[in-house]
Amino acid sequence: MHGLINRSIQCFLRDTYGVANWSAIARAAGLGFDNFEPLLLYDTALTEAVIDAAARHLQRPRETVLEDLGTYLVSHPNLEALRRLLRFGGVSFQDFLHSMEDLPEHGRLGLPDLEVPSFTLLDQGEGRFLLHVSKLIDGVGHVAVGLLRAMADDYGALVVLDHAGVEASCEVVAVHLLDHTYAKGRRFELAMPEA
Amino acid sequence: MPGAALNQAALSRMMPMHVGLDAVGKITTMGPTLAKLIEGPLPLGVGLLKVFAVRRPAGISSMDDLRARAGSTLHVDLRGKGDTFRGLAMPTGDGGMLLNLSFGIRLIEAVRHHALTDADFAATDMAVEMLYLVEVKQAVMTELRRLNLSLLGAKATAEEQALTDTLTGLRNRRALEVSLPALIGQGVAFGLMHIDLDYFKQVNDTLGHAAGDEVLREVAKALVVETRASDMVARVGGDEFVVLLPGLSDPARLNQIARRIIDRLTQPIDFEGTDCRISASIGLTISTLYDPPEAERMLSDADAALYASKRAGRAQAQFYQSTGGNFLSA
Questions:
Q1: CA-wise closest residue to A36 among A3, A64, A9, A84
Q2: Looking at residue B329, what is its pLDDT?
Q3: Of A70, A29, A69, A75, which is closest to residue A49 (Cα–Cα)?
Q4: Does A38 contact B at CB distance below 8 Å?
Q5: Which of residues 113-142 of B touch A (CB under 8 A)?
Q6: Minimal-distance CA residue of chain A relative to B151
Q7: Which pLDDT tens digit goes with each residue over B2-25?
Q8: Is B196 helix (H, G, I), strand (E, B) or coil?
Q9: Pair type for strands A158-167 and B269-271
Q10: Model pTM score
């Protein structure tokens, strides 16, 4: 698993639960180090071990941890760069939903060895969609639910999201877009904010 | 083959940065993104070259010139503003021309300066992808820089550790092997002192290794105090030390320093309420005795002088004497 993804999980746990909890989780997972390097590659077993250790240590269901991770990726100020990159997907939540199919290619534009799940969107009409997420890790659909929920907030869209189960090698997320201009979304300027 | 005719709205969607020109070069239409940059009333009916300047190719000063360069890549400036464009002008069926512009490589600046959005670019334009790439590149570079800095820090720490004696914090033999030839290479005169503790083995044997370690730490402190900051003190063996004293070749001064070190190390060192008594024997040599100085030779000469001190009854310092077999008593 790419270090960028491992690092994101580390930052999520550290920023949400504190350095001490992250260190305890890293120990429990048997990492042997405290920091994932975002540009190196790691064995996927390490990623699974961290998620399992986090669920055990925090005494929270694995699904909840993963969903919170998805939300964190979009909403935490430390990851503003990622939110911006996702917002390049389109001017509306629906555009963004469709752009999920391009996510692996978008990712590889920057990091050719980045492995992210592939997404397939089925439009069922009347604002209902099924998003198939390939199983990069067990529970990847829950990460998608958290991420889509936060992105819907970002766009100001009202959506109902559900993890609709597992199909073949995919996890399925049901998306019901009720109102795409429900609230005022967060601003997004094409130009990068000046440092 | 009939040409495709587009109405103004369709043209603006496909080419939001176009300029339509009539047969004499007056502006008839302008795409909405370009209109955004003009700020103010649109210069419709105004000659193109009054609003824009063609920088390259040179020599375009009339509609005929422009017509003659149809199909060439144009470098166009918006007069009175900082904006520059890349453009392409082609003749239209009504005898006029259609000029289409893009920001080219200055896209990033233009987007920031004019607060442009997705809607300002045609769906076929790769501008948004380019902005995306720039941000991805920036994010990756930031991470790379952070990784490089942390590796640099780790490298410095590892190098420092490789040259440091862990027990005393002094430099180690490896550091001496680097510094001594370097000092010789600088061509500066220097003194070299080889120190061996007397009675250290007894401390170790009677009071244990913890006492021995404590004594070594105290000796290290004493050596640092009695030498200058520019001198290098290294622990090169169990109870052996070498001091390099750059710029110091005066035997009297070196002798004085050696004496102070011996006096100080002869003072009892307290270990958990017990006095540990040691002293030190010193062998000295000076780079000016050699032509040219050699690291190995100087170390073995200082060592020989040191053993002369030991044989002469310990707690003393002797200089290596280059002529004859006798050592000068310091």
A1: A3
A2: 46
A3: A29
A4: yes
A5: 115-119, 128-129, 131-140
A6: A37
A7: 567 889 999 999 999 999 999 999
A8: strand
A9: unpaired
A10: 0.67
Is residue B116 classed exposed, middle or buried when 0-12, 13-18 and 19+ CB atoms within 10 A define those classes? buried
A90-100 average pLDDT score: 90
Q: Which of B111, B118, B136 sits opposite A110 (nearest CB)?
A: B136
B112: closest chain A residue by CA: A191
Place of tokens 């990784």: B147
**Whole-number pLDDT of residue B288:** 93
Structure tokens at B221: 């402190």
B44 with B28: CB under 8 angstroms?
Answer: yes
State the amino acid at position B184 in one-letter form. I
Single-letter residue type at B160: E
d(CA B223, CA B165): 14
Mean pLDDT estimate for chain B: 91
Closest partner residue to A39 (CB to CB) among B115, B138, B143 is B143
Interface contact A191, partner B, CB < 8 A: yes
Q: Which of A:122-181 have CB within 8 Å of B?
A: none
- Tell me, yes or no, if B270 comes closer than 8 A to chain A by beta carbon: no
Q: Which regions of chain A does DSSP assign to beta strands (E)?
A: 119-125, 128-134, 158-167, 170-179
What's the number of CA atoms in the CB half-sphere (13 Å) around residue B233? 20
pLDDT value at position B63? Answer: 95
- Half-sphere exposure at residue A92, Cβ-oriented, CA atoms within 13 angstroms: 10
Whether chain B has a CB inside 8 Å of the CB on A114: the answer is no
**Among chain A residues, CA nearest to B110:** A191
Closest residue to A190, CB basis, from B111, B136, B137: B111
Torsion region of A115: left, alpha or beta (phi above 0 gives left; psi -120 to 50 gives alpha): beta
CB-nearest partner of B132 from A85, A191, A194 = A85
Residues of chain B with pLDDT under 50: 1, 325-326, 328-330
Q: How much is the ipTM here?
A: 0.72
Mean pLDDT computed over every residue of chain A: 91
Residues A31-54 have pLDDT tens digits of 999 999 888 899 999 999 999 999
Binary contact (A191, B137; C-beta < 8 A): no
Phi, psi of A192 (to 5 degrees): -65, 140
**Residue B315: DSSP 8-state:** S
Name chain A contacts of B137, Cβ cutoff 8 Å. Answer: 110
pLDDT score for A194 = 67
For range A162-187, the mean pLDDT: 88
Return contacts of B43-48, CB within 8 angstroms, 24+ apart.
Answer: B48/B19, B48/B21, B48/B99
Rounded to a whole number of angstroms, the distance from the CA of B159 to the nearest CA of chain A is 21
How close A11 comes to chain B (CA, Å)? 14
- A85–B133 CB contact, under 8 Å: no
| Residue of higher predicted confidence among B1 and A83 | A83
Phi/psi for B139 (5° steps) reads -65, -40
